[in-house]
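I'm curious: can you give me some protein's one-letter sequence along with its backbone structure tokens because I've never seen that pairing?
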Amino acid sequence: MEHVKGISAFAMVVVVCGAVALGTAGVSFADGKGTGAHRHYKGEVVEKAGNLAIKDETGSTYSLSENEAHRQGREFKVGDKVEFTVNENNALIDVHLVGEKGKHKHVTGKLIHVGLMKKEIKLQTAEGEKTFPLLLQETKTKALAEGTEVTVELNEAGTVIDLHEGKHKESR
């Protein structure tokens, strides 16, 4: 019985420390339920090794290449204050100037294919077949069979920044 109490106490310490670490890092989750893999931060565009990067409130930096900025549908300069989202792989998937609201669109359809050579996905939607570019190579690695109903999240540039199995409540 003493062994079980020790394990329970250890588990409680891990949970509390994890909650404190998340709370002090300014992390919130995209789905509002605390179970999503996306994390949101505020930061500033800086120059790092001759390239643009985003430095968050904790001092961590995330690369922001010129191509990445174009895929996001905007251009950034050193000193811009931004809000950004990274995925479970710490890859930058969305960036907005502070105070600017993202206008993302969700599209649901049956998966026709995910391109092996091109970073794109093709869906059969109510409006017909639609092909969308993928922001990140990792997006297409999700193990979904053809014919599976999926919802893609598109940024302002029309690029897929996220993919989920099933229908999103706001999809069109």
